[in-house]
Design a protein that fits this description.
Rossmann fold, 4-stranded antiparallel beta sheet
Length: about 675
């Protein structure tokens, strides 16, 4: 008995310790995690509907379904369980029914399901499918977008044209205007139009007839149309310029809910988007950029006063570029999120005093919703070492509370260090911010190889975010210190900081990155300055190509979808406004600036082993950029490899492709740094 007591005593202390042994993150962990999105609060404020997406590596597929959780906290209930997409939930006014978009029978349509239990029923049958569901507050109307042929006035016409195209053995394409392809798909003469349909199930009404796109092909907001509280009017975003490839001139229009001639309500030559009626119907809030042709200007929050036609700019001169917006139920204030010095923060602004009040300023916070009683904010929150979950807080920013614990069991098994922020002096003495993530089982007495990541955009940021495509934790799990710097051009540090990359792609930003590298190597003794790899995508890929011609400090590089030849990039990208802004005109007007910052011009200096990754369906940075770079590396005898995806675009999305991407990238870095 004494021996048994001793054994029990020992087990009581040793078993919990053993169960707490954690392991590094693997790809199977990453791809298996649930991804939460789109919280929607019920009209009575008691329940939140939200979407969880899971990726299946074995089936190489993605599945989304809708779940429910009490706003006060409690057990989660799965509402839908069909294969495919089941997302975009919207509550009926009585809270008894959820409308949502589902591809359960092969095409995306609006369905509805009783919240208390029962079978889902199809609501729409438009042959071209639906996306972007909105609804009127009175519950009478649904709104959505659909890709149609603008010369078709009936759904039968669209259906017939699509069937003829699918049957035809001739796959040639003809086009007469720019752009003829966007992001990862060909336009094929189609336009995206905004439709409304009564919730009773009558036929859909096209509110945006004509040869235009709603939502716009690019530079739109989170949602680019809305229905007025009284259900009599709709507002939408559209670009009517004759050549969309060179225009950022999105404007707002209003139209009667049952159709009619749209009325333009903004005349700003730059980008206006994301319209949202106030609950009392007095205003339409929207985002506005100041400079035409620039896609990364500050997003200002503006109110359109419906009675007078006046426009009231609430945030001009502020430090923040407005992201997603939510109205307070009393229509007296708005809440918005914004990039903020490596975080993505939430702020509130009053209409009367225009005072911007920070509510939460650490971590990455998004998808905010205000409870019907105006007392709580529901939002999604994540950090580099914690995947996203849903949280609530008071509208004052106090009493933060976690509602979901989607990946709790899996995360509990993993060792993932939080991101550590640091600042250093960049080009011209400007303060520059960065993040550092340590590997599992970190020992400060050891020397670790380092991975230096450069973000895309270039007007973007490395936020304190659990990224699935460029996960700092995946690199750290292989035994690397991971460093992510936000150099010139990054967002969240003021508009001037963002602006200082335009026309200077390899200038101050490159100096910022090199000084950041020096700072890390000289400050952190555990970083081995002789074993550093660099990696990046899009503009980050460009910077790999630029650095390859200007420094030999890296053991190897990974360049994904990177710009190599700025002249050919200009001729193949679908967003002509982007290079024309960044390089002060067309290639024909200003060839010297294009040549000055083109990595091609410095290809004779390439010496660093380089992995090139690109997708055939990348129409933002054409596949030819990757092929040209690989040819230059091979022709000069530089050790190189190319990973080519015939079925991916600018990003790698399919689970099995993502697994190959991670294995190839990490093995390449291991080969050259370990």
């Amino acid at each position: 008995m004494k021996r048994l007591a001793i054994i029990i005593f020992v087990l009581a202390f040793t078993l919990p310790v053993a169960s707490q042994v954690k392991r590094p993150l693997s790809f199977d962990d990453l791809i298996s995690m649930g991804r939460i999105s789109d919280p929607q609060i019920s009209p009575d404020g008691r329940t939140i509907a939200f979407v969880v997406t899971y990726h299946s590596k074995s089936e190489n597929s993605t599945n989304s379904n809708i779940y429910l959780v009490p706003l006060a906290g409690g057990s989660i209930r799965q509402l839908t369980s069909a294969k495919g997409q089941n997302a975009n939930p919207k509550w009926s006014p009585d809270g008894r029914t959820l409308f949502f978009v589902s591809s359960r029978d092969g095409e995306s349509q609006v369905w509805k399901i009783p919240v208390g239990g029962g079978e889902a029923q199809k609501v729409t049958t438009i042959s071209t499918g639906v996306s972007g569901l909105v609804h009127s507050r009175d519950g009478k109307w649904l709104g959505f977008s659909s890709e149609i042929y603008p010369d078709c006035v009936t759904d039968d016409c669209n259906k017939k044209k699509n069937e003829e195209m699918a049957r035809s053995k001739v796959k040639a394409k003809m086009f007469e205007s720019l752009p003829y392809r966007v992001w990862n798909h060909w336009k094929d003469g189609k336009r995206s139009h905004f439709f409304v349909q009564r919730t009773s199930g009558d036929g859909a009404i096209d509110l945006t007839t004509g040869d235009y796109d709603t939502p716009p092909i690019d530079l739109g907001g989170y949602v680019d149309y809305d229905i007025s509280p009284d259900g009599k009017e709709a507002v939408f975003t559209r670009n009517t310029d004759p050549m969309l490839a060179i225009s950022t001139n999105n404007d707002l229009f209003i139209v009667p809910i049952e159709g009619g001639t749209p009325k333009r309500i903004t005349t700003n030559p730059a980008n206006d988007n994301q319209p949202l009626y106030s609950p009392d119907g007095k205003y339409i809030a929207y985002r506005r950029m100041e400079r035409a042709g620039f896609e990364a200007d500050q997003q200002e929050l503006v109110l359109y006063e419906r009675a007078t036609g006046n426009h009231i700019n609430l945030t001009r001169g502020s430090a923040y570029s407005v992201g997603e917006v939510a109205w307070s139920p009393d229509s007296k204030s708005l809440t918005f999120d914004a990039d903020d010095k490596g975080s993505h923060s939430i702020f509130r602004i009053g209409i009367a005093d225009r005072m911007i009040v920070p509510l939460i300023t650490n971590g990455y916070n998004r998808s905010l919703r205000i409870a019907p009683d105006g007392k709580k904010i529901v939002f999604i929150r994540e950090s580099m070492n914690r995947p996203a979950d849903m949280f609530t807080m008071d509208v004052s920013g106090k009493n933060l509370s976690q509602l979901t614990f989607l990946n709790r069991e899996r995360v509990a098994e993993l060792e993932m260090h939080p991101a550590e922020g640091f600042w250093f002096d960049g080009a011209g003495g400007t303060k520059v911010h960065g993040w550092l993530v340590k590997p599992p089982s970190f020992d400060p007495a050891k020397k670790y190889p380092m991975v230096y990541l450069v973000h895309g955009g270039p007007q973007g940021q490395w936020g304190d975010q659990f990224h699935f495509r460029w996960s700092a934790q995946m690199f750290a799990a292989r035994g690397y210190v991971v460093v992510l710097v936000n150099p010139r051009g990054s967002t969240g540090y003021g508009q001037q900081f963002t602006d200082e990359i335009s026309g200077d792609w390899g200038g101050k930003v490159y100096e910022d990155l090199m000084k950041g590298l020096d700072y890390v190597v000289n400050t952190y003794d555990y970083v081995d300055g002789n074993r550093i790899a660099a990696a990046g995508a899009s503009y980050g890929g460009y910077m790999m190509n630029w650095m390859a011609g200007h420094t030999d400090r890296f053991r190897c590089m990974v360049t994904h979808a990177g710009v190599y030849n700025l002249a050919s990039m200009y001729g193949t990208t679908e967003e002509l406004w982007f290079p024309e802004w960044e390089f002060k005109g067309t290639y024909y007007e200003n060839p010297e600036l294009y040549k000055k910052w083109s990595p091609l011009e410095y290809a004779s200096n390439f010496r660093t082993p380089t992995l090139v990754v690109h997708g055939q369906l990348d129409y933002r940075v054409d596949i030819s950029e990757g092929f040209q770079l690989f040819t230059a590396l091979q022709r000069q005898g530089v050790k190189s490899k190319m990973l080519y995806f015939p079925d991916e675009g600018h990003w790698v999305g399919k689970p099995q492709n993502a697994e190959l991407w991670w294995k190839t990238v990490l093995d390449w870095i291991d080969e050259h740094t370990k």
